[in-house]
Fold:
Amino acid sequence: MAEDTTPPIPDPEEIVIQLLRVLSEVDIEALGEDLRQLDTASTRRAMTGATLLAEALTRATLGSATVADALGTEFHPTPEHVPHRERGERIRVHDDEATTATDSASEA
Amino acid sequence: MRAHLVVGGGDHSSAVTASVLAGLTPHHRVARASRLDGPADPVIVAIETHLDRLLAALDLPAPVVADLIATVLPTELPALLRLARGLAQAETTGHELVVDVDIEVARLLDVPQRVARAFAAFVPVVARWEVLVAPEGIGALPAPDTPVLAALREGAELLESLDTALADPMTTSLHLAAPAGPVGAVRRADADVLLALMGRTLTAVHPVSGAGVEYLPAPPSGPDARVEHDDGRWFLRIDVPGVHAADLDLVRHDDELVLGCAGRTRRVLLPSVLRRCEIERAGVADGVLTLTMAPDEAVWPRG
Structure:
């Protein structure tokens, strides 16, 4: 049987640290010059990418154990998905006509 | 009364429509809807175009795309929207509308609520597409144009108003003119069950021979679910004429009840005051479903 070679997913804080290391090595001035050459569509995609990266960093930072400890918050695991067809509470319907008939019979 | 609908698709439906019309003409201003196909409804055009682009972007096989579109936009939808627009217009102009409805009766009574609900559910998804589905420039899914959102809102509103009108015997009279034999029997049964779940009955059943029209009694109360409060308990009463407890399935999904009978279902939105209540008991007597509900302490407002 082949061994599972998939590397384990690192902790959020590890990802944040790695991303910040990568970003710190980016030559911002050269990148700015490159961005000026971009067409509108690519610029918009770059903006979307930057927004997503910022969101990912924020989420990872706030989700890290260090920040959670500092804030005193507790993270709960994501609730498991419940299929739609299994949702809902089934309610028993009583036959009140039988009750009414019995009541009126006993009253009579 | 705003509309008189002849349903059932029997050969005598034209004659029944004519007799309904003849009964009205001396006293009312009457508009008779045309059965001819008009131009494509703008609601369908906007939604269908976007849905087609969306499913094409997923690179699904064409027959699968066609099946999915047919599910979201059923073939009866153009006729249903035309009927809904006709009803709205008749209300504005003060006319009585007489229509020989060329839609399978089960679909006429079932589809408006389902599609209205689906359209309404997609409104917040389309309005927040960038957040919920895909930001611009990410992936291949095309963002919906503004007309799609307007079309979903308009479609939901039209179909909701049609469903409300169909459920109200004071607004619509329903004449069944079904063919003789098993097909007619099935159409009658479909109509009876679906209308019972809507809290009403057919107005009249017209046999093929023309003689012996059966007029059905309308339930004494209105179509809406009624809320009563007594001694810390809330009672919700829903008309289900002719349905017995053993034949009724009841399921609560959050703020909605799903009534089921003989394989047909209908959703009833709980009145806002009852959404924070738990159902203690449900019972049926004399064609009325009564739910006894008590406040759920976990979510009931304090103070």
About this structure: The CA atoms of residues 11 and 179 of chain B lie 7 Å apart. The interface with chain A takes residues 135-138, 244-246, 248-253, 258, 279, 281-286, 289-291 of chain B (CB under 8 Å). The two ends of chain B are 45 Å apart (CA to CA). The helical segments of chain B are 13-24, 42-57, 62-72, 77-93, 105-127, 129-132, 146-167, 182-198.
